[in-house]
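> run fold ATP-binding cassette domain-containing protein
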Amino acid sequence: MIQIEKLRKVYRARGRAVTAVDDVDLDVREGEIFGVLGRSGAGKSTLLRCVNLLERPDAGRVVVDGQDLLALSGGDLRRARQGIGMIHQHFGLLGSRTVAGNVAFPLEVMGVPRAERAKRVAELLELVGLSEHAKAYPAQISGGQKQRVGIARALAGRPKVLLSDEATSALDPETTASILELLRDLNRRLGLTVLLITHEMDVVKRICDSAAIMRDGRVVESGRVRDLLLRPGSELARGLFPLPAANVRPGTTVVDVTFEGDSADKPFVSTLARTYSIDVNILGGAVEEIGDTRIGRLRIELPGDPEINAAQLAHLRESGLTVEVHGQAPAYEESLADGESVAHGESLAHGESLADGPAPVDGESLADGPAPVDGESVAGGAAVVHGEAAQTAEEALS
Ligand SMILES: Nc1ncnc2c1ncn2[C@@H]1O[C@H](COP(=O)(O)OP(=O)(O)OP(=O)(O)O)[C@@H](O)[C@H]1O
Ligand SMILES: [Mg+2]
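> ok
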């Protein structure tokens, strides 16, 4: 429904050029909810504003519902933009107009006749559960209700696409949940495609079918949420299943195992312990309902170095599990020695800003350059080397 190709937006101010969106490709399928995550300044809002041409990209293509927006002008462009609704963090309501008046506003701009307008406003207010507040003014309703007005207004032109820029970040958790539920409901009932920006992992977990992570204007990870979570080294997985920094004791193998659906019902830890007569130590983990499936991530410790556990690791992989082996301490020291520590420090805050709680601090997902990965040859799969810094989200963001 939305195809973004090689999109680039450069801001020039006071002799400085900032590449806010840098060569971004994104494909949002019809009827899905697509979440874009990233730390402040990553270029999320700019990307979104390029989708409805509030910002004119410097290069690339934006195709919405089969129409190449940059090739349109005049009335064609106006009509295409009517097919794209947008909601904002701070609602942007007109304080001098009632709830009904705010929803009527875009219809007036579109030149919809009065009688039809009134009918449509009533429909829209019904859709977002605000019929009883039609005559109230924005100052007289709650934040959640204001966002419902924002949503009703965005849907006035019967758009196929809704863009949402941090629409819930000014709301408390309960209200956030109800707005997310409303978006999910509208997405299903109207077949509405939603492209949303958020910094809350919870939003992705609750309603997104697909997601992308942006950093420094680029998309560093994108795809269906389920696929991303099962991909070794996924930043999304680290954000959704925060595990503390791994402390790999010498003579042990620390493994992060991601499992979903069927494999979530199989007792793989006890099977592993029984089959190989070893003690498996559980270091941490979480299970989440993601869409219709259960996905979990467990960190386990096996006795012996990764070389010794080759068969055990192969067994886990053959059971359909995603397996990431943590490297040993020397690998981390090496990575510091070859000058990557600076890149790490910078990107640590990024990973953390995506996490809800105490965040995972890992070498691989957070490094910008070649990752300090070790153990790949040993384990035959993707390996992750954990650094030692364990910061909280608050520390990283301060
Ligand atoms: N109008 C503008 N003029 C100049 N620079 C801009 C403009 N808008 C954004 N930028 C710069 O572009 C970069 C991306 O900004 P953008 O607002 O897209 O980030 P964001 O990911 O939405 O951040 P946040 O999470 O804080 O909303 C930043 O470096 C920002 O300073
Ligand atoms: Mg923004």
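The chain has a mean pLDDT of 81.
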